[in-house]
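Proteins fold reproducibly. Look at a concrete instance:
___
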Amino acid sequence: MRLVQFNKTYFALAVLIFGIEILIAKFARDQFIRPYLGDFLVVILIYCFVKSFLDTPVLKTALFVLLFSYTIEILQYFHIVNLLGLQDNKIARILIGTSFAWMDLVAYTIGIVIVLIFEKSSAGVARSSWIFF
């Protein structure tokens, strides 16, 4: 098994979800799609992007993405953008975010659960292993 391996299916999914995220950011001005669907999709996007280049176990990758997402959200609670002096940097504010919300953690968790259900039911897009090591 090679750790670094390009997977065009995961990459295509990542590109598709990234496009949807751009459309949400640009056009959605509601109380559900932008705040919740966007957060739900972002963990799936990150998961697919990681799996595009790394042949890592499904569960390990999913947990890493979830913990990464939680970490970013917790850093928002501590206003990390301001602490880093990036409050005037629009890209940093978009990528890192500026406001903590408990519901974001719920949306991330649901997104990863969906990933795990999909991976288990389809035996993985790339026949990924379900083992940790």
Q: What stands out?
A: The two ends are 12 Å apart (CA to CA).
